[in-house]
Design goal:
two-stranded antiparallel sheet; alpha+beta; five-stranded antiparallel sheet
Amino acid sequence: MKRKGRALLILWAGFSVVLLVMTLSPGVRAQAGGPVYTNDGRLQQPQGFRHWKFVGAMVTPNGLNGGKAGFPEFHNVYIEQANFDAYQKNGVFPEGTVIVKELTLTRNSTYPDGSTDEASGRGFFEGEPNGLDVTVKDSKRFAGTNNWGFFNFGHHAQPYAESSKESSKAECAGCHAAGASKTDMTWVQFYPNLRSKN
């Protein structure tokens, strides 16, 4: 009986240590490969996103927008492969999906519209990274913004912020709701890789 009691005590002590480590860990994962939050609810910067599925890029340069484009950079968009596959199959992103948009400046503009001449001709070419925005799907956490949370890790040269609080509805979600509510709050129309079933 004493052995059994001692074994239970050791088991309970081990369980308590595991619980303590989990409680003190710096982030809480929503799911494997999904978002990671700090203990105060800030989203941690996704790691390794440039190795995810590259969905596409668009550019809205200042030169074509009266010198005042809202986002004058290229928008390079990345999604983890499993979530990309799920969207192509079902037309809906699964809970825990993380979408990363990295902004890059146009390169070496030599014309007033921001374009430049390169070997392939005159056009807009990518320069240096200049910002990081992230969206996360979580119907419980972000019910007030159509199930998606929006985060800004800085619109400037690297390094970006290590974590970000959720952006206000006016900053991001409102525009997505107005223009992309039928495609799960994501601008699918700009990304042929998402629209394609191949």
